[in-house]
What we know:
Blueprint: H1 16-20, E1 32-38, H2 44-54, E2 60-63, H3 67-73, E3 81-86, H4 90-99
Antiparallel strand pairs: 1-3, 2-3
Amino acid sequence: MSDEAIITWGQYQSGELLESWPRRENGELEEPAYLCTRSCNDLSDQLTVNMLKAYGIPSLCMERAEGSLGRVVLGISGYGVEIFVPANLLGDAKALIDDSGSEAAAPDPETEIFN
């Protein structure tokens, strides 16, 4: 068995994702490309997905490890969510998440005040 992730088109999307996903000139679906991993505890996964959708970039989310069980039991995946976008829109998607400030900057130890 391969360690490579198998990406499937989930039925929970009711066909919306499949309809919005871009196609190549030959009619085949564009390949999904990994964009980022987001936490579910603070809804950063949903914020990222909704921002991408607002800019016309469809996204596919996959729970990591046993995250789908956590989503059923707890309502969130404790392992986070991997977000994929069409390969031809990856550059635009990266620019959006970089500009959005959603990536937390590391604190500067010189200016950080510790109590």
